[in-house]
Write a structure and sequence with these properties.
Elements: E1 3-9, H1 18-35, E2 39-45, E3 51-52, E4 58-59, E5 64-71, H2 75-82, H3 86-89, E6 93-99
Antiparallel strand pairs: 1-5, 1-6, 2-5, 3-4
Protein name: YCII-related domain-containing protein
Organism: Mycobacterium spongiae
InterPro entries: Dimeric_a/b-barrel
Length: 102
């Protein structure tokens, strides 16, 4: 079954209180459970990052804030699975990319 890389961008800032962190983690863990066997890698949030080009020049990093990897029958099915991602409720976005076997 094809794999899809979900790249997260934007959304709410990291929670400041323990209660807010627990609520955020509950939303993510619930989404992961709902994905079931489609979830290949829950991924991680991104911390400090940099971007370089072929000249090695430091460039502003993208707005990506994290990732997950899942399987789906096709891109439309992957988009549907991503449509309930918690980052969307926090005002963020999800970019879905097919992972190509090389």
């Amino acid at each position: 079954m094809p794999k899809y890389h979900l790249t997260y961008g934007g959304g709410a800032q990291m929670p400041e209180t323990t209660r807010e962190m627990e609520a955020m983690m509950q939303a993510w863990n619930s989404w992961f459970r709902d994905l079931g066997d489609a979830l290949v890698d829950p991924g991680n949030a991104f911390g400090d990052r940099r971007r370089i080009d072929s000249a090695g020049a430091g460039l502003p990093a993208t707005g990506a804030t994290g990732y997950s990897i899942l399987t789906a029958d096709d891109l439309d099915a992957a988009v549907a699975l991503a449509g309930t991602n918690p980052v969307l409720a926090a005002g963020g976005a999800v970019e879905i990319s097919a992972c190509l076997d090389m």
